[in-house]
From TrEMBL, chain A:
Gene3D superfamilies: FAD/NAD(P)-binding domain, Fumarate reductase/succinate dehydrogenase flavoprotein-like, C-terminal domain, Succinate dehydrogenase/fumarate reductase flavoprotein, catalytic domain
Claim: Oxidoreductase is one of the keywords in the record: yes
Keywords, ordered alphabetically: Flavoprotein, Oxidoreductase
Matches recorded under Pfam families: FAD_binding_2, Succ_DH_flav_C
UniProt name for this protein: Fumarate reductase/succinate dehydrogenase flavoprotein subunit
SUPFAM superfamilies tied to this protein: FAD/NAD(P)-binding domain (SSF51905), Succinate dehydrogenase/fumarate reductase flavoprotein C-terminal domain (SSF46977), Succinate dehydrogenase/fumarate reductase flavoprotein, catalytic domain (SSF56425)
Statement: the UniProt record of this protein carries the keyword Transferase: no
NCBIfam families named in the record: PRK07573.1, sdhA_Bsu
Residue ranges constituting the Fumarate reductase/succinate dehydrogenase flavoprotein-like C-terminal domain according to the UniProt record: 523-657
Region ranges (Disordered): 1-34
Domain called FAD-dependent oxidoreductase 2 FAD-binding: residue spans: 57-462
From TrEMBL, chain B:
NCBIfam families found in the cross-reference section: dhsB (TIGR00384), PRK07570.1 (NF005746)
Gene3D superfamilies: 3.10.20.30, Alpha-helical ferredoxin
Organism: Actinomycetospora lemnae
UniProt domain 2Fe-2S ferredoxin-type: residue ranges: 1-103
Protein EC: 1.3.5.1
Official protein name in the record: Succinate dehydrogenase iron-sulfur subunit
Length: 658, 251
C-alpha cells in the first residue's frame, strides 16, 4: 500500500487509526455475475504437468480448506507440504461442525437455484460481503456435494437411496445436506483421506505437531514459513514457491468459545504483521444455543445444534430473579419472548437476533441458572405433540450430550442455553483469487474474510471451506505458479535468518519473564474484557474502555507471565503463551474496527445504531465497505484501507424477521 | 470434593516414568475431567512445577485428541464418553484416581499422558480412501445408496481415531480402527472397486507397524466412545478372505 493520508479522520476512534488509500481492484472479472467464475477459470494460466513437480506449495492447516487444497494440489502433481499443530491432520476443528452443508442442488424442487443461494447468503451477511465471491460459492456448492459423495461421505439418505436434505437457519428452501449431527466430521474425514492418499502417492508431506510461527517474505513475495516442532521444540524453516494459509478463525480471543482449545490466530496474525491486510476483525458470530458457563474453571463452551430451535420453545420467567424450578413456573408466568417479539419467525429467527434477545433478557435480570446467564429451551410441548419417541429420534444424541455435560435430563427439565462465540467472519483480506496483499500468500476458509459479510448463515462455513480448498485455490494458485519456479532462496538469506531469529527471540522473551501469573489467567482476563466490550453489543464508551485496558494488560502479560520449563521439548504452556500473545494484539485491532464502524450490521451491534424497536440499523451510505487494516509497526496506529462494496444484483434492504 | 490423583509422569520418550501423587481439595462435580486437570496444572505452574501434559483439543468428544486410562479404563468409567466429556460428578469425595497414558507398543509415550499415535495415520495412508480426484466426480444422484447400507456405513464412519481400542486391547491391536474404515467404505457402492485391495493393504500395513494381532477379545468395542460395532471386524475378515479367494492385488 502506497502513500498514506497522515491526518487523522474525524469519525469515532479518531486518533486511533490512519486512513490509507482505498483498495482499487479485487481482480474479479467484470462480466455478468453468472459468468465471472467461468471467465476467471478460462483466463487463469495453466502449468505444464511436467513442471508441476518442480514447484512447491506450503499449506498451513488441515481443516476443510487446508486438507482439500493440499490434496487437490497434490493430485495435480505439485510438491506440497502440509502443516498442522494437532497430532494428526484428521483432528482439525472443522471436525466439530454439526449441522450440515448448503448446496443449491434443488433436489426438493422447492424453488432453489444458484441465484437464490447467492441471494440468501448476501442478505444473510447483512450486505457486507462481496457479490462476486458469494456467487462463485453458490455455483461451486453443486460440485462439492458430487465430490464428497464420490469420496464416500455417508450423507443422510432417503429410502429411495437418494440424498436427504433439511432446512436450516431461517431459509425457505431445504438445501442443507447432512450426516446426522456430525457433518463436519464426515466431510473432514473425506478430505483427510484424500490427503493421506496423496501422502501415499508421494506428492504431499504432512508435518503434524508443527506450528507456523512466522511468515518468510523475500523480495516482497511470501516464500516460506518458520515452524516449531512441538515435540522437540526445534525451529525450522520451510521454503516454497507459494504459501497458503487455511488456519481457521480467531474466536478464542474471547477465551471461552466453541472453538477447539488450540484454535488460534497466530499464523494469520504473523502474516498480518508481515504485510497482509486484516479485514473486518469486528465481525464475529455468536451462536444462540450453547450450554451456559457453569463455573470459574470453565475451559470452553459446547454448542447445541441450531436444529433444536425447530421444536424447542425459548422462554424466561416473567418475574425478575424468579429462581423456582422451571417445572413449577406456571404457563402464564413464562415469557416466550422470541414468539412474542418476532411472531413471523418465532424461535427460528437468525443467530444474531436470537443471541441478542437472550442477552437482553438476562441483562433485564430474567436470566436463569446459578449465574443468571441462561434462558430455557423447552421441549415439553414438542413431547406432548409428537410423543417422546419422535423427539428422541430427532434429537436423542443432542439430549444425551446435554445430559452428559450438565447432569440434567432435558426430557424432564428444560435445557438452559446461552449464546457463545462460534465463528469469525473477519480474517485476512483476499481478492477474488484468494490472494492476500502479499504476493504468493493465499488464504482460504475461515482464515480469510471473504464470503459471509457481517453474519454467516448456518451450514455455509463447510461450503466455503471446501469451495476454497477443492475448487478455487487449485485454479488461482496454478495461475500464480505459471511464473514459477522463482529464484531459489538460500537458507542463509537475510530475510530467512531474520524470521528465525525474531521467532527465537520471542520464545526466549516469553520464557524469561518468569512472573507470577499463568497464561490461562491472562487469557481469561483478556477474553472477559473482549466479551464484555466487543461481544454481543458494543458501545463507544465500552470499546474505548477496552482500548485503554488492552495495552496495559499486554504489558503485564509480557512482564508477569509464568511459564515452567524450556523451549527445547514438548511444552504446552509455551505453545499457549505464544498464541495468547497474538490474541492480545488482535483484540486491540478488533476493538478499533468495532469503534470505527458506527453502524450495526449482522454480528456487529452498536448500541448507538438501532431502530426504534431495538433492531440493528445499518448505515449503507457511510459503511458499505470492507475495512482492511494494515499493520504499521508496534505501537503505531493501524492504517485503514476501504474496499467499497457494490450491490448490482442484490439490493440492500433492512432485514426483518418480525 | 477432595480427590487424590496418581498420575503417570514421564519427562520424555527416553525417560523412565512413574506414578506421582497429587491432592486436589476443591474439585466441583460440574467440572469436566480435563478441567479438573487444568485446575491441577494452574496450581503446579504457580508452584513452579512442570504441569501435566495431556492431549486435548475440541473438548466436545469429536476430534479424538484426548484419551487417558482412568482407573484402568480407557476414557474412564462412563460408556460412550470420551475423557473430555466425562464429568467429575461420576466420582465421589475422597476417591483416589489413577491416570495413565494409552499403553501400547505402537503408541510410544511422548511426555506424561501424551502418546504418539501417528501409526493410525499410516494405516489410513495405506488404503483408507476411495481413489477419486477432485473434479472427476459424477453427479451425486447418479449413485443411489440404499438407506440401510448408508446408515451402517455411517455407524462405522463415526470413528474418531482416538486409539482407545488399541489401549484396551490385551494385544495392542488396532483391528477395530482398521475395520471401521474398511466397513465404512466397503458398504458403499463408491467403495466397491477397491474393496478387497483396500482390506488387504490396510491389514498388511497394520501388521507391519507395532500393533498386535486380533484374537476377538472385544475389549475394543467396550471402550469405544463411539460404539463402533464389533461386527466391523467380521466385515474386514470377510473382505480379506474374499481378496484371498479372488487373488485381488493392488498392483
Amino acid at each position: 500500500m502506497s502513500e498514506l493520508q497522515q491526518e487523522p479522520t474525524a469519525v469515532q476512534g479518531e486518533g486511533r487509526y490512519v486512513l490509507g488509500d482505498p483498495i482499487a481492484d479485487t481482480r474479479a472479472p467484470d462480466s455478468p455475475i453468472a459468468d465471472r467464475w467461468s471467465d476467471r477459470k478460462f483466463s487463469a494460466r495453466l502449468v505444464n504437468p511436467a513442471n508441476r513437480r518442480k514447484m512447491s506449495v506450503i499449506v498451513v492447516g488441515t481443516g476443510l480448506a487446508g486438507a482439500a487444497a493440499a490434496a487437490t494440489l497434490g493430485e495435480a502433481g505439485y510438491h506440497v507440504k502440509s502443516f498442522c499443530y494437532q497430532d494428526s491432520p484428521r483432528r482439525a476443528h472443522s471436525i466439530a461442525a454439526q449441522g450440515g452443508i448448503n448446496a443449491a442442488k434443488n433436489y426438493r424442487y422447492d424453488g432453489d437455484s444458484i441465484h437464490r443461494l447467492f441471494y440468501d447468503t448476501v442478505k444473510g451477511g447483512d450486505f457486507r460481503s462481496r457479490e462476486s465471491n458469494v456467487h462463485r460459492l453458490a455455483e461451486v456448492s453443486l460440485n462439492i456435494i458430487d465430490q464428497c459423495v464420490a469420496q464416500g461421505v455417508p450423507f443422510a439418505r432417503e429410502y429411495s437411496g437418494l440424498l436427504d436434505t433439511r432446512s436450516f437457519g431461517g431459509t425457505q428452501v431445504s438445501r442443507t445436506f447432512y450426516a446426522r449431527g456430525q457433518t463436519g466430521q464426515q466431510l473432514l474425514l473425506g478430505a483427510y483421506q484424500a490427503l493421506e492418499r496423496q501422502v501415499h502417492a508421494g506428492t504431499v508431506e504432512v508435518h503434524p505437531r508443527t506450528e507456523m510461527l512466522d511468515l518468510i517474505v523475500v523480495d516482497g513475495k511470501a516464500r516460506g514459513i518458520v515452524t516449531r516442532n512441538l515435540f522437540t521444540g526445534q525451529l525450522d524453516t520451510h521454503l516454497a514457491d507459494v504459501v497458503i494459509l487455511c488456519s481457521g478463525g480467531y474466536g478464542n480471543v474471547y477465551y471461552l468459545s466453541t472453538n477447539a482449545k488450540g484454535s488460534n490466530v497466530t499464523a494469520a496474525w504473523r502474516a498480518h504483521k508481515r504485510g497482509a491486510l486484516f479485514a473486518n476483525p469486528c465481525y464475529t458470530q455468536i451462536h444462540p444455543t450453547c450450554i451456559p458457563v457453569s463455573g470459574e474453571y470453565q475451559s470452553k463452551l459446547t454448542l447445541m445444534s441450531e436444529s433444536l430451535r425447530n421444536d424447542g420453545r425459548v422462554w424466561v420467567p416473567k418475574e425478575r430473579g424468579d429462581d423456582r424450578d422451571p417445572n413449577d413456573i406456571p404457563e402464564d408466568e413464562r415469557d416466550y419472548y422470541l414468539e412474542r417479539q418476532y411472531p413471523a419467525f418465532g424461535n427460528l429467527v437468525p443467530r444474531d437476533i436470537a443471541s441478542r434477545a437472550a442477552k437482553n433478557m438476562c441483562d433485564a435480570e430474567h436470566g436463569v441458572g446459578p449465574s443468571g446467564l441462561g434462558v430455557y429451551l423447552d421441549f415439553k410441548d414438542a413431547i406432548a405433540r409428537l410423543g417422546r419417541p419422535a423427539v428422541e429420534a430427532k434429537y436423542g444424541n443432542l439430549f444425551e450430550m446435554y445430559e452428559r455435560i450438565t447432569g440434567d435430563d432435558p426430557y424432564e427439565t428444560p435445557m438452559r442455553i446461552y449464546p457463545a462465540i462460534h465463528y469469525t467472519m473477519g480474517g485476512l483480506w483476499v481478492d477474488y483469487d484468494l490472494r492476500s496483499t502479499i504476493p504468493g500468500l493465499f488464504v482460504g476458509g475461515e482464515a480469510n474474510f471473504s464470503d459471509h459479510g457481517a453474519n454467516r448463515l448456518g451450514a455455509s462455513a463447510l461450503m466455503q471451506g471446501l469451495s476454497d480448498g477443492y475448487f478455487v485455490l487449485p485454479t488461482t494458485v496454478a495461475d500464480y505458479l505459471a511464473d514459477a519456479p522463482f529464484d531459489e532462496v538460500p537458507e542463509d538469506h537475510p530475510a530467512v535468518q531474520e524470521a528465525v531469529e525474531s521467532t527465537r527471540a520471542r520464545i526466549d522473551k516469553l520464557l524469561s519473564a518468569n512472573g507470577h501469573r499463568t497464561v490461562d489467567s491472562f487469557h481469561r482476563e483478556l477474553g472477559q474484557l473482549v466479551w464484555d466490550q466487543c461481544g454481543m453489543a458494543r458501545s463507544k464508551e465500552g470499546l474505548e474502555k477496552a482500548l485503554d485496558r488492552i495495552p496495559s494488560l499486554r504489558e503485564e502479560f509480557w512482564r508477569d507471565v509464568k511459564i515452567v520449563g524450556t523451549g527445547d521439548g514438548f511444552n504446552q504452556s509455551l505453545e499457549k503463551a505464544g498464541r495468547v500473545a497474538d490474541f492480545m494484539e488482535l483484540a486491540e485491532l478488533m476493538c478499533i474496527d468495532a469503534l470505527h464502524r458506527e453502524e450495526s450490521c449482522g454480528g456487529h451491534f452498536r448500541v448507538e445504531s438501532q431502530t426504534e424497536d431495538g433492531e440493528a440499523q445499518r448505515d449503507d451510505e457511510n459503511f458499505a465497505y470492507v475495512a482492511a487494516w494494515e499493520y504499521a509497526g508496534d505501537n503505531q496506529r493501524p492504517v485503514l484501507h476501504k474496499e467499497d462494496l457494490e450491490f448490482s444484483y442484490v439490493h440492500p434492504t433492512q432485514r426483518s424477521y418480525k | 470434593m477432595k480427590l487424590t490423583l496418581r498420575i503417570w509422569r514421564q519427562a520424555s520418550p527416553e525417560a523412565k516414568g512413574k506414578m506421582q501423587k497429587y491432592v486436589l481439595d476443591d474439585v466441583e462435580p460440574d467440572m469436566s475431567f480435563l478441567e479438573m486437570l487444568d485446575v491441577l496444572n494452574e496450581k503446579l505452574v504457580i508452584d513452579g512445577k512442570d504441569p501435566v501434559s495431556f492431549d486435548h483439543d475440541c473438548r466436545e468428544g469429536i476430534c479424538g485428541s484426548c484419551g487417558m486410562v482412568i482407573n484402568g479404563n480407557a476414557h474412564g468409567p462412563q460408556q460412550y464418553t470420551t475423557t473430555c466429556q466425562l464429568h467429575m460428578r461420576h466420582f465421589d469425595d475422597g476417591d483416589t484416581i489413577d491416570i495413565e497414558p494409552w499403553r501400547a507398543k505402537a503408541f510410544p509415550v511422548v511426555k506424561d499422558l501424551v502418546v504418539d499415535r501417528s501409526a493410525l495415520d499410516e494405516i489410513i495412508k495405506s488404503g483408507g480412501y476411495i481413489s477419486v480426484n477432485t473434479g472427476s466426480a459424477p453427479e451425486a444422484h447418479a449413485i443411489p445408496v440404499d438407506k440401510v447400507s448408508a446408515d451402517d456405513a455411517f455407524d462405522a464412519a463415526t470413528c474418531i481415531g482416538c486409539g482407545a481400542c488399541v489401549a484396551a486391547c490385551p494385544n495392542g491391536s488396532s483391528m477395530l480402527f482398521t475395520a471401521a474404515k474398511v466397513t465404512h467404505l466397503g458398504l458403499l457402492p463408491q467403495g466397491q472397486p477397491e474393496r478387497q485391495t483396500r482390506a488387504i493393504n490396510m491389514l498388511a500395513r497394520q501388521d507391519e507397524l507395532d500393533f498386535g494381532g486380533c484374537t476377538n477379545v472385544g475389549a475394543c468395542h467396550e471402550v469405544c466412545p463411539k460404539g463402533i460395532p464389533l461386527a466391523s471386524i467380521a466385515q474386514l475378515n470377510h473382505d480379506v478372505l474374499g481378496a484371498t479367494l479372488t487373488g485381488a492385488r493392488s498392483d
